[in-house]
Amino acid sequence: MTKYIFVVGGVMSGVGKGVAAASIGKILQSKGFKVTSLKIDPYVNLDAGTMNPTEHGEVFVLDDGMECDQDMGNYERFLGCDLSGANYMTTGSIYQSVINRERNLGYNGKCVQVVPHICLEVLNKIDKAAAKAKADIVIVEIGGTVGEYENILFLEAIRILKIKKPDDVLIALVSYLPIQGSDSELKTKPTQHAVRNLNSVGLQPDVILARASVPIDKKRKEKIAFHCSVPEENVISAPDVSSIYEVPINFEKEVFRNRRLYFSGFLYIGNRSRKACRLFLKEKAGNSLAKCRRF
Q1: What is the pLDDT of residue 290?
Q2: Residue-level pLDDT at 256
Q3: Which CATH number fits the domain that encloses residue 26?
Q4: H/E element holding 177?
Q5: Helix/strand/coil for 130
Q6: Of the candidates 65, 81, 227, 151, which has an alpha carbon nearest to the alpha carbon of residue 73?
Q7: Which pLDDT band holds residue 275 (cuts at 50, 70, 90)?
Q8: Residues 246, 279: contact at Cβ < 8 Å?
């Protein structure tokens, strides 16, 4: 039975959802699971090829020619595999698929609606990518920030899947904690509001990745856990680092080394490693291997 991990963002964009998703995938891969990753961009563009790079970022081109978000490059580098257009979708591509199917009488005369048909098409594409990769676990990054209108249909798709497969879906919220004042206090209120926005569409995060310029302390973890209804051990510190290749190492240190963590009851991660996995830290300015760490 395929498991699904959805990575969503809170407070603001650009908090590192893609690197977080790739890092989770790398850790799971090191435990012997077969993992694949997808990216959903909530734009009406059919692909990223026509998006302004100064607004959206540089385009990453897959082996099959699909022009997509640069987070796909992070997935490929972290997982050590080549992905295809099956692993990337936009609002525009989903609507195009549904409209083409309707024009070819694929819905047998039904009234085609945004809900459920658009949402079901999203889930259908996710399942096709999982089947193609023969994946045990599918990690799906939802672009944008919770509370926006643009990605609400993708969140609705998660809600539908959660109803169908309640034991097979995990939601990870990557949320930003700002620092205010000279005392350098991390503020949890924006993250609390992000969780409320997620609750408003019928979803509850299982894991919160707390992004900040510095590691969060135990007091902040307790506060987030209490106000956001997640276990304290599922609030994971995600501070700034000098290299993105340090992110999975930090996650592994915090969660996966000497204790057991249950994600929503469906995924056991702990001392289950079936093979050794090495991740090399690369120097920021070049390709030489600076050092390596073992999960």
Answers
A1: 36
A2: 52
A3: 3.40.50.300
A4: none
A5: helix
A6: 81
A7: very low
A8: no
Structure tokens at 130: 């999982």
Dihedral angle of Cα 60, 65, 67, 69, to the nearest 10 degrees = -40
∠ Cα 69 72 74 (to 5°): 120
Cα separation, 4 vs 278, in Å, equals: 25
Token readout for 245 is 């290749």
Q: Average pLDDT over the chain, rounded to whole?
A: 86
Percent of the chain whose pLDDT exceeds 70: 85
Work out whether strand 261-263 and strand 267-269 pair parallel, antiparallel, or are unpaired: antiparallel
Arithmetic mean of pLDDT, 121-125: 98
Identify residue 28 by its one-letter amino acid code: L
Contacts of 212 (CB under 8 A, 6+ apart): 176, 177, 178, 179, 186, 237, 238, 239, 240
Could you tell me the residue range of the domain that residue 290 belongs to?
3-294
Q: What is the pTM of this model?
A: 0.88
Q: How far is residue 171 from each of residues 3, 33, 91, 122, 198, measured CA to CA in Å?
A: 11, 18, 20, 16, 10
How many domains is the chain built from?
1
160 vs 256, higher pLDDT: 160
Whether residue 116 is preceded by a cis peptide bond, meaning omega within 30 degrees of 0, is yes
For the chain, the distance separating the N- and C-terminal CA atoms, rounded to the nearest angstrom, is 26
- Is the peptide bond preceding residue 166 cis, with omega within 30 degrees of 0? no
Q: Residue 251 burial by CB count (10 A; 0-12/13-18/19+): exposed, middle or buried?
A: buried
- Say which amino acid occupies 84: S
Residue 58: in which H helix or E strand, if any? Answer: none
Containing 72, the helix (H) or strand (E) segment is helix 71-79
Helix (H) or strand (E) holding 184: none
The yes-or-no verdict on residue 135 having pLDDT over 50 is yes
Alpha-carbon span 176 to 179, nearest angstrom = 10
CA distance 22 to 223: 27
What pLDDT does 279 receive? 37
Calpha distance 52→75 (Å, rounded): 22
CA distance 6 to 259: 23
